[in-house]
Design a protein that fits this description.
There is one protein chain. By secondary structure, this protein is α/β, with parallel strands linked by helices. It has two domains: 221 residues, P-loop containing nucleotide triphosphate hydrolases (Rossmann fold), CATH 3.40.50; 62 residues, Alpha-Beta Plaits (2-Layer Sandwich), CATH 3.30.70.790. The strands form three sheets. It has a six-stranded mixed beta sheet with strand order 7-8-9-4-10-11, with helices on both faces. A hairpin with a 2-residue loop joins β13 and β14. The longest helix has 16 residues. The two termini are 33 Å apart. Bound molecules: adenosine-5'-triphosphate (ATP).
Length: 304
């Protein structure tokens, strides 16, 4: 697998407090990688380190295969765009002027591409309106446009949907999907809003107390949270024959319980097996939510 960013036992201490404690992450090229964790778990600290805003206490990370201790790391960082905490905008400037300013900072010779960038983030009609009069969602999208000004192939967004109204969330989500799917940009996005991330992320890293507790692909997570029907009976043989004949996947949990995945026609199953004298003890439907999966991983209550 090709990784844009990996970290190896990255640590960041604030005096004796370990904000990051052996933080090891693997961000595949082309992914939307959701960094999920409670407030204070260490997400922003990690992002600040990889953006070069702070130095690790120990451990290292690798950007496009270049180690963070190498003198070449800054060159690799120029392939990356980021919005850390709040977007750094000039609030007395228009959207376009913010981008012109960013182009100057990047040393670009002209303003080619700015109109396209404004269109991409849906701010092409904001004219003379100053950024201070933008909605939070518009500010966030302008922040993303600023991060895109250097044509990065990897962008890092710290809680980009925090505080947005439902419309703003949809707009940011659609923009990120477009950047990823149409432009091939790899995205690292941190959030404590699990449900929202699940509509975007192709990969997850679950963070707790400065540590990645699990990395998992969206497909693996979906399977882990998959719906199943639990059937309990005194003897499962007839049930298992029925499931095999109907090509339904299942797992035998014990002599008395099977978990069935896929679309079980409960009426048909009950009638067929009843005719064979099969006695059900119970039938129940189960589904693990993303949130309960996370709580099971890290233990304790999840604070939204
Ligand atoms: P949030 O979404 O609340 O920002 P987070 O997962 O991004 O959460 P961090 O901001 O990375 O969390 O903070 C991780 C821990 O490190 C927190 O307990 C925080 O109080 C602590 N911390 C962060 N910066 C500093 C600092 N400069 N000095 C001391 N402690 C800090």
């Amino acid at each position: 697998m090709d990784y844009v960013l990996t970290s190896d036992r990255l640590c960041k201490n604030y005096r004796s407090f370990k904000a990051l404690d052996n933080f090891s992450v693997h961000i595949p090229k082309g992914s939307i990688y959701g960094l999920v964790g409670r407030n204070g778990a260490g997400k922003t600290t990690f992002i600040r380190l990889i953006c070069g805003l702070q130095r690790p206490s120990s451990g290292n990370y690798s950007l496009y295969g270049v180690n963070s201790n190498s003198s070449k790391i800054e060159k690799q960082r120029s392939r990356m765009g980021a919005v850390v905490e709040t977007p750094s905008l000039f609030l007395d400037m228009t959207a376009k002027d913010n981008l012109i300013h960013q182009y100057k900072l990047l040393g670009k010779p002209d303003n080619d591409g700015i109109d396209e960038l404004l269109k991409l983030v849906g701010l092409e009609n904001t004219g003379k309106k100053k950024a201070k009069n933008f909605s939070l969602g518009m500010k966030q999208r302008l922040g993303i446009a600023v991060a895109l000004a250097g044509n990065p192939d990897f962008i890092v967004l710290d809680e980009p949907i925090n505080g947005l109204d439902p419309q703003g969330i949809v707009e940011v989500r659609e923009l990120l999907l477009k950047l990823n799917q149409e432009m091939g940009i790899t995205i690292l996005i941190s959030s404590h809003i699990l449900d929202e991330l699940s509509r975007l992320a192709t990969n997850y890293g679950f963070v707790d107390r400065g540590h990645i507790v699990k990395e998992i692909s969206a497909e693996e997570l979906e399977n882990a949270c998959k719906k199943y029907i639990s059937v309990k009976a005194e003897n499962l043989n007839a049930l298992l024959r029925y499931l095999d004949n109907n090509n339904l996947p299942y797992t035998v949990i014990s002599d008395e319980e099977a978990q069935i995945y896929g679309k079980l026609d409960i009426n048909d199953c009950v009638i067929s097996l009843h005719n064979q004298g099969f006695k059900f003890l119970s039938i129940s439907e189960h589904e693990e939510s993303l949130e309960s999966y996370f709580i099971n991983l890290v233990g304790g209550k999840y604070d939204d």
